[in-house]
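Slide 14.
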Amino acid sequence: MPEVHFRIRWPDQSETRCYSPSTTIMQFLTAGRSYPLNEFLTLSRQALEHGSERVRQKYGYGCGHAQLQIAEIERVAIRFAESPAACVSVVNFEI
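Slide 15: predicted structure.
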């Protein structure tokens, strides 16, 4: 199960390189697409939890790095929570 890095662009045009323990992230998010902030938060959490569960099934324990990534995404997203038009773009995936 190859890990994947994915780059996202926040509403202020800053970018973050994120980590996923599994390629299943690409079943939840699409490169080149923008998502309303709340939708992005929901999808990224679901994707990273799914990837962590795949790690658990294979190795017997979940992926702590995926949980840290969820926390980091949510920490940055707070800055944009008051903006109803805030969107997050998925720039690309790096396998």
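Speaker note: The chain has one domain: 4-94.
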